[in-house]
Structure formats: C-alpha cells, structure tokens
Design a protein that fits this description.
Length: 592
C-alpha cells in the first residue's frame, strides 16, 4: 500500500462511490418508473372499460351471447385491447380473442373476484388462454344497484415492457454519460487534492537532502497550506540550528587549530575523536585520515599509547613526559591527560594535551653546559694561581728568580681570569639588554666606530707588525649602538690579528649595498676548517683550545659579536678557507 500513490487511492474510491450512487438511483428510478407505468396503464385500461361498458347495455344476458362476443371482437380489434365480458356468475359472455364457449368460468380470476363488490380489479398474471403475461383491469357494471356483470380489458405485459425498455435504454445512455463525466471529474478533483501534496513531498525531500534555503509554496486547502507553512517553519528553524552548530564547530576548530599545544581526544575504545593541527604535526600523521581510527593503528608511539590507556583506566587527570624520536633529534613532550565527560558526567573518553618542550629542554641543557664550561674555564687559571701561590709559600719566595717566574704566572692567569669575567659580563649584559629591548639604537656614522676599533687594536697589531687598513666612506650611516658595534668590530679585529702571521694585513671595509649595510673584516691568516664554521659562534667554542688560550682568547669573542649584531637586527656571516684566511661580515639593515 505504501508505494501506491494517493491519486490512485482517491480516484478509484471516488469512481466507485459515483458508480454505486448512479446504480442506486437507476435502480430506484426504474422501479418507480415501472410502478408508475403500471398504474398509468391500469388507469388507461379502466378508462377504456368505462368507455365501452355502455355498448353492452341490454345485452347482459346469456341469450345475447353472440352479439356480445361479436361486439367484443370488433371493439377489441379497434382498440388493440383484449376485452372480456363476464356475467356475475363468472360465465364469459364474449371475448375479443377467444371463443367464450371454450373459456372456463372466470369467477375465480383475481381481478373479476372483486367485481361483485363493485370494486375495480387489477391483476397482472399469466393468461392460460393467451399463454402470455397480461395486465387485467375488471370494471363492474352496475345498474340500479344491481351488478350486471364485469367488463374486463387487458393488454399483454410485453407491450408495457417495450415502452419501458425504450425509456431504460435512454436512461442507460444518460447514466453512462454521467459515469464518464464523473470519472473525468473525479480524476480532476483527485489531482487537485493530491498535486499540492506531491509538491510538498518533493519539497520535504529537498529539505531532507539539506537544501533548507528553499521554501514550499503554501497552496491548496487550509490543512495542506497549514502543513506547508509548518514544514517551512521547521526548515527555517532547522537551518538556523544547523548554521549555529556549524558556527560553533568552526569556532572550536579555529581555537583548536590555532593552539600551539597538541590536542587529542579519544573515546573509550581508544578511537580518535579529534586531533588538532599541532598534534597531527607533532605525531607526523594526517589528521583527517586519523579521525575515527584506533590510536594503536595511527600513532605508533608506544609511550603515548600507554599514557592514553593510563588516563582512560584511571578516570583522573594524569601528567607525564614523553620523548619522541624525530629526524631532527629527540622531541620532548609534556603531556596532560584528563577524562572526557559528557553532559551527564559519564566518562566517554580522554583528552590529552601535549606541549612541545624540546626548546625548553635544550635551553636547560645549554645552560647546564654553560655553567660547566664557565667553571672549567675559571678552574684552569685558578688552579694555576693556586699552584703558584702554594709554591711561593712553600719557600720559592726566598729564591728571587723562581719567585718572579711564579708571580709572572699569577699575573698572567689573573689577566686571563679578568678577561674571561669581562667577556662573560659583556655577554650577559648584551643578552639581558637585548631581551629587555634596552639596547638603544641611534642614527650615526659607521666610519668613526670603525676608526675607534682600529685605534683600540692598534697596539696589538703593532706588536705583531700587522697592518690594519680601513675603507669606509664618511657617508655610510646606520642605526647603531656605537659602543657595542665598536666592541663587536674590536673582537673581530682582535681575532684577525691573533690568527694572522706576523707582518700580515687586516682589511676593514664598510659599504651600503641596497638595503643592507655590510661591515667586513678580512684577514689572510690561518683560516678555519669547514667543519668548525657552524659552531664558532657558540660560547667557549674554540677550534684549537690550547692555541686560543695561549693567544689569550676566552672562546666568547664571536659569541659576543653574534649577540651584539642580533640586537641590531642583523646577522654575522663567515667565509673561511683553512690556510688562506677568513672574512667575517656583519650585515645590518641599511637606513633610508
Ligand atoms: P677566542 O677567544 O678563542 O678567539 P672566539 O669566539 O673569538 O674565541 O673565536 C672562536 C674560535 O674561532 C677561535 O678559537 C678560533 O679558532 C676561531 N677563529 C675566530 N676568528 C678567527 C680568524 N680570524 N681566523 C682563524 N680562526 C678564527
């Protein structure tokens, strides 16, 4: 039934109702018509009997039998009616169709039986005489209150039926016409009722597909129009709710994806409900593909799997550290897990948030290394000083030559200690100021800075007979912190002189190239092997520690240079070939 269209349910029903009504009316009409026709025929026959009864006056006697019979035959022929004249005792005097002598006594005939009581008798029955269905009307003939006899007229029922069949035929024709019209009309009405419903069904199917922006036409009867309006209202509300949900989801998505912490939500079966961008990146997986899959299949990090399982099992907040191997070295994650609860407070899974603390851990280790390095750097001169002092105290003071040698060691090592502490202080000052943005930059000429640095280094250059050449146009200007930049250039010059052969040369030149200001310090000294280049800016890193120490280096010079230039918004680049020399370039942003 479900797949039958409403039209094909309504239409046949209408049609059947119409046909039943039509048949009932036809049946009733034909019955009424038959009765009416029979009544009319009876009245007609009575009138005929009355009309002819006078012709038999004075003939109501068996003696006039022949005359009566002849008259019956004559009148019967003329009126196409059977006429029978019957005496009160039932004897037939004359008959238009039969010989009365051969006819039996008619006193018992139903129509005649009534005649003596002066009543008209009507009867429709089968005639034994004529062997067919006849309608009889018998009229009593009364004279001076004496019944003389009965005149009975009759016609065959077939004649009546013929008249009726003609009428029935026409009635059937009209009935068929009405039936056809009713069929067409029912179809129209059914369509008229079902069309708005069909349109509404299509509209509802559109809603179901999610096309909620289109509305249904509110047409048809009041009920259907109300249904259409209700569906439209429902679509509107649904649309609003879906949009609100989408908005909320987008907001949540935006919040989650802009978080630098990784967020992972899993259900009780350890299936991934949600994974934000940071988490996907940390785990090196595709967030979309991971959705809905079990954590075991997607994230092959045993430590994390264990942590998730622990959080799910404990139903409480958990914290921990996880180390993940990665191509760039180990990654340290700090993980925080909490049970995920629905509105009813039921545990539906776990939420794990992890932050990448690799940088923090590396900084911690750098700091640890730094402290170890500083201690080590300080320990060497202090051990030397201590040793010398102990030797002096244990009697060397009395030997002037030995005493002088040991005091010389104490003086050198003290200088060294001072140099290390000066450099450490300088470095920490630059770092601190840079962190607090406390390094003031001002527009100024570069040449005076370079000249001052040259001047500061001139004594040590002269000592080694190294020539310092300076090339810088007085127009070259930059946003600089003059004392700090001077210190950076001094450090570079010191190194250049230190690692140049005696009688060598060092060139300092500065120029503006496009939007960059370049300060170059070049020497033709020992140069640096390629494998050391990436590390020489680290604190305390030395290519050859013993030689550096001998030359009075602290291993902090280039580190200080790097920090000073970074505070200027620039960078240091080094090009060096072992045995051929080095070029250190300070690249600063140019002005204007
Ligand atoms: P140091 O006090 O030992 O010179 P730096 O930080 O200034 O420390 O330099 C780090 C290392 O880089 C030095 O030990 C040295 O080996 C190398 N280096 C720096 N400048 C030069 C240069 N101009 N020529 C050759 N080697 C250099």
């Amino acid at each position: 039934m479900a797949d039958r269209r409403l039209l094909w349910q309504l239409y046949p029903t209408y049609l059947i109702i119409t046909l039943i009504a039509l048949l009932a009316v036809s049946w009733y009409t034909s019955g009424a018509l038959r009765t009416f026709h029979a009544e009319q025929t009876a009245i007609n026959l009575e009138a005929r009997a009355r009309l002819i009864e006078g012709r038999f006056d004075g003939l109501w006697d068996p003696a006039h039998k022949d005359s009566v019979d002849a008259l019956c035959k004559q009148l019967g022929k003329a009126s196409a009616t059977r006429i029978t004249v019957i005496l009160p005792d039932g004897k037939v005097l004359g008959d238009s169709q039969e010989d009365p002598a051969r006819m039996d006594n008619h006193a018992g005939r139903p129509e005649v039986a009534l005649a003596p009581g002066r009543q008209i008798g009507v009867s429709t029955r089968f005639s034994n005489t004529l062997q067919q269905e006849m309608m009889y009307v018998a009229v009593p003939v009364v004279e001076d209150a004496v019944v003389l006899g009965t005149v009975r007229v009759s016609i065959p029922v077939t004649a009546m039926d013929r008249t009726l069949s003609g009428i029935y035929l026409r009635l059937t024709g009209v009935g068929l016409l009405i039936a056809l019209m009713a069929a067409a009309l029912s179809l129209l009405v059914s369509r008229w009722i079902t069309r708005p419903l069909e349109e509404m069904t299509l509209g509802a199917q559109r809603f179901a597909r999610g096309e909620l922006d289109r509305r249904l036409a509110v047409v048809g009867s009041a009920e259907i129009a109300a249904l259409g309006a209700a569906l439209n209202r429902m679509a509107g509300e649904l649309d609003e709710r879906i949009q609100a949900m989408a908005r909320q989801r987008n907001e949540l998505e935006a919040v989650l994806s802009s978080m630098s912490e990784g967020v992972l939500a899993v259900d009780n079966d350890e299936r991934i409900i949600r994974l934000n961008r940071a988490a996907a990146k940390l785990m090196a997986i595709d967030a979309k593909k991971a959705q809905g899959r079990r954590i075991l299949e997607v994230i092959r990090k045993v430590e994390l799997q264990r942590f998730v399982a622990r959080t799910l099992a404990s139903h409480e907040s958990e914290e921990g550290d996880i180390v993940l191997p990665s191509p760039e070295g180990e990654r340290y994650l700090q993980v925080h897990g909490a049970p995920l609860r629905d509105v009813q407070g039921e545990d539906i899974g776990a939420l794990v948030v992890f932050s990448d603390v690799t940088r923090l851990r590396r900084l911690e280790s750098v700091r640890r290394d730094f402290v170890a390095n500083v201690s080590h750097e300080l320990k060497t001169p202090i051990t030397a000083i201590k040793g010398s002092v102990e030797t002096l105290l244990s009697g060397a003071l009395s030997e002037p030559q030995t005493a002088e040698r040991f005091l010389g060691i104490v003086a050198r090592q003290s200088d060294r200690l001072e140099a290390i502490i000066d450099d450490l202080l300088a470095l920490s000052r630059v770092e601190q100021d840079a962190e607090q943005d406390a390094i003031a930059l001002a527009l100024g000429g570069i040449r005076p800075v370079l000249a001052a640095a040259q001047q500061a280094c001139q004594p040590s250059a002269d000592e080694k007979n190294v020539e310092i050449r300076l090339f810088c146009s007085p127009q070259v200007r930059g946003r600089i912190n003059a004392p700090l930049l001077e210190q950076a250039v001094v450090n570079l010059l010191t190194n250049a002189i230190k690692y140049s052969p005696a009688g060598g040369k060092v060139v300092v030149d500065a120029a503006q190239l496009g939007d960059q200001l370049m300060i170059k310090v070049q020497d033709w000294g020992s140069g640096i092997a390629a494998e050391h280049l990436p590390r020489i800016f680290e604190r305390f890193y030395r290519v050859d520690p013993a030689r550096s120490r001998k030359l009075g280096g602290t291993g902090l010079g280039l580190s200080i240079v790097k920090h000073i230039i970074q505070a200027h918004g620039g960078q240091v680049v080094v090009h060096s070939t072992l045995g051929e020399g080095s070029v250190f370039t300070l690249i600063l942003p140019a002005v204007g």
